[in-house]
Amino acid sequence: MVQDPGVTTSTPTAAPRRGRPRDDRLDAAIVAAAVAEVGAKGWGGATIEGIAARAGVGRASIYRRWGSKYELFHYAAVSITQPSEGVDTGSFVDDLFVALLPIADMLTQPELAALLPSLLAEATNDEAVRSTVHTFAGRCRQQAIDAVERARARGDVAESTDADALVDMLAGGLVYRRLLLGEVADATAVRALIRQALGE
């Protein structure tokens, strides 16, 4: 996992579950198996049966938790992307770093890096998959956009700064380096990318 000692992040508290308490470790094992299954076989080739076999559980264990492959991956998208809530360091660079670090962290994991091309390809034709991809990327992206808006309010960046374009350029740079160039961005590289984009 990519870490930076200069910034402290927090993990969102999971929403309360109804009924019998679930085993968080089993949930995590199923999510990991689902990511590995799609990364290996693509979205169309991945099945609940294959995910269950990878996780070492029965199909019923999955269907008790999620009604379909779509529901499982929506849950996975939320659980994998855990941006720090409400972080305002007072520094534009640090705020962007906190928002973008989870993206870099995810891309250091081979299973997730293998999963993304399949999901992106499927998302062009499948609304449910597209929604999952938006969930996957949207949380960290929104936190970065919020950081730009705070910086505008403080006068740290020009009022004309396009938050969406800046954030997409930064996040896109991380994805491009990982998926096309095979390079992993550590914390130092993430900071360097941010400073270069800001012209510092």
From TrEMBL:
GO terms for molecular function: DNA-binding transcription factor activity; transcription cis-regulatory region binding. Keywords: DNA-binding, Transcription, Transcription regulation. The keyword Transcription applies. Coiled coil: none annotated. Residues 47-66 bind DNA. Residues 1-22 are annotated as: Disordered. It comes from the Bacteria. The keyword DNA-binding applies. Residues 24-84 form the HTH tetR-type domain. Gene3D superfamilies: Homeodomain-like, Tetracycline Repressor, domain 2. PANTHER family: HTH-TYPE TRANSCRIPTIONAL REGULATOR RUTR (PTHR30055), TETR-FAMILY TRANSCRIPTIONAL REGULATOR (PTHR30055:SF148). This is TetR/AcrR family transcriptional regulator. It comes from Mycolicibacterium frederiksbergense.
